[in-house]
Amino acid sequence: MIKSIYSKFKPFLAACFLLSVLSYTFQDLSLVYPSYFPKPVYDFKKNPLKSSTVELGRKLFYDPILSRNQTISCSSCHLSNQAFSHAGNHLSKGIEDGIGDRNSPAIFNLAWQKTFMWDGSVVNIDVQALAPINHPKEMGEDINVAVRKLNQSKEYKTLFYKSFGDSLATSERLMKALSQFQLTIVSVNSKYDKMKRGKVKFTASENKGYQLFRENCSSCHAEPLFSTYEFANNGLPFNPELNDNGKWNKTFEPADKLMFKIPSLRNLTYTYPYMHDGRFKTLYEVLEHYEKGIVKSPTLAKELHKPIVFNAQEKENLLAFLTTLNDSVLVSNVQYQKK
To answer: SUPFAM superfamilies, per this entry (predicted)?
Structure first.
């Protein structure tokens, strides 16, 4: 089966990647990623990818039926042309002009992540959608009511039948369909990726920025995903308006205070503003924070006990490198857009 699916997609892979790829194949769909990527951490054996289920997940992702007043969908805060973030909004926006608690994180390369949400309070993507659906300021809907609405729809009855063998919508099936669609959102077509495949070369400025990145940023933003997806206190001044202490809000463990999930540096051009509360509008402000704004506390990341200082030219070089992580193929891919 693996051999047949690989043969089917071989011309596409040769044209688009021109590299040796690894692929996970389940039923009729495979997750394709470059050979320099690590193995996904998501257990596809428990939720095998299936094209009909991915399509169901895509429809659900764009359908406001999951919100209480049917005005907000998952895509309202995760726009495909913004690397599935909500560019320009420091906090998520929901039903009846509600404002969420944090900045909407970008959605891509989820198969390599063990935890979800800025505080890691969700440990399985197959249930992650429950959080925004139930949040009173985001989608504000009871999951049982959402399922009831789906079961009243002839169109959804047909789609659930194609995916699961019968027409009954359940909360588990709803969650798994949404996760399947999101798991297929893979960002692997930036200039950095083309460089890794030997198709392009970096400019002198990009190369210098790459070296600066490796020396100063890579311990938390490890290649090729550009995050360890662990948690860190990066010295942000506490925001009293939000009263957000990161993981500590859930665990009340002293070691978790001000610990937030480390975001990927991929697609930064599309995903501003930055940080869990969207406080920085530009990457220059981010660099300024690491030079002059770090607040010391017991949980501060050891890498930040000393400020990270770049001169003007080094900043330009580093930012030039970061632009090589933007994936224009991702944000324009009709496969991820609303049908």
So the answer is: Cytochrome c (SSF46626)
CATH code at position 319: 1.10.760.10
Binding residue ranges: 74, 77-78, 217, 220-221
Q: Enumerate the known binding-site residues for heme c.
A: 74, 77-78, 217, 220-221
Q: Please indicate, yes or no, whether residues 203 and 309 belong to a single structural domain of this protein.
A: yes
Where in the sequence is the domain holding 241, given as residue range(s)?
A: 191-329
Q: pTM of the entire structure?
A: 0.89
Alpha helices (runs of H) in the chain, residue ranges in sequence order: 2-16, 51-62, 125-128, 130-134, 143-151, 154-164, 171-183, 191-196, 204-216, 248-251, 283-288, 312-323, 328-332
245 with 166, same domain: the answer is no
State pLDDT tens for residues 224-238.
Answer: 999 999 999 999 999
Residues facing residue 32 across a β-bridge: 23
The total of structural domains in the chain comes to 2
Nearest to 263 by CA among 243, 282, 284, 278: 278
User: Do residues 225 and 171 both lie within one domain?
Assistant: no
Single out the residue in 135, 166, 186 at which a domain terminates. Answer: 186
Q: Are 78 and 85 in contact (CB under 8 A)?
A: yes
Residue 164, helix vs strand vs coil: helix
Give the least confident one: 21-35, 108-122, 308-322: 21-35
Q: Which two tokens stand for residue 257?
A: 């205070």
